[in-house]
Amino acid sequence: MSGAMSFDAALLGRKLVREDDMSCFQITGKSGEEQIGRWALGMLTLDTTWVLTFDPGTQEFVVFSELHPMPQAWNMNGFGENCGNPGFGFNIGNAAQDLCVDGALIVQSQVAPPTPFPVTRVGSVKFADDACRPEVLLSGLQ
Description:
mainly beta, globular
């Protein structure tokens, strides 16, 4: 899995950056060279499982602990069956870090829940059209 995210640089001083702080987010899963799925922030609905917990100080996504029993749920619940069909998702819970493809948990993708999940910071990213939140439209009444 690879991905990218963007949030306001003013949040870098916080202890945690959360899902509501994201301005852009996208993930893509591959098996070898074949793309097996993707999910982006523009696909978010009221029914989407969406939890993101990032520590900007350590430049890592938070992994499972007693304080954070399910710190990541990117279009995937803890059972791994709600990523859609077709669909793609990822989560970190108490059982594993794992992927969901087309509504099914991919057991072969599982790694231990506390496995570190670091991030590499880059200067700029070309996001897919559906990866970013739309700009807020403002109007004035007179």
